[in-house]
Amino acid sequence: MLCCSLCNSRFSGEYRSGNLQRHKRTKHAEQRFLCPRAGCLRTFARKDARLKHERRKHPELDRPPAVSRR
């Protein structure tokens, strides 16, 4: 079992180390990704979350479609 030193969230299982690292990057990171659309004040901890928001809420930004991994 691994615990986050900043908030005591716990991680167990085979991928605990990677899950803890991702948790720290997304929950405790200072860098935030701001939506580029004028007037939209949404911010995101991850670039992929911002891109998903842009595709759904601002189609005029003309982002490339998501690519299926299968």
Describe the structure.
This protein is α+β, with helices and mostly antiparallel strands and 70 residues long. It folds into two domains: 1-30; 32-70, no CATH class. Helix content is 33%, strand content 11%. It contains two helices and four strands, in the order ββαββα. It is elongated, with a radius of gyration of 16 Å. It starts with a strand and ends in a 13-residue tail after the last helix. The model has no long low-confidence stretch (mean pLDDT 94).
**C-alpha end-to-end distance:** 33 Å
Characterize the biggest β-sheet: 2 strands, antiparallel
Order of helices and strands: EEHEEH
- Uncertain segments: none
Count of individual beta strands: 4
Strand order of the largest sheet: 1-2
Mean pLDDT: 94
Protein name: C2H2-type domain-containing protein
Region (Disordered): 51-70
InterPro entries: Znf_C2H2_sf, Znf_C2H2_type
Domain C2H2-type: 35-58
Question: Could you provide a short overview of the structure?
Answer:
By secondary structure, this protein is α+β, with helices and mostly antiparallel strands. The chain contains two helices and four strands.
Topology diagram in text:
Elements: E1 2-3, E2 10-11, H1 16-27, E3 33-34, E4 43-44, H2 47-57
Antiparallel strand pairs: 1-2, 3-4
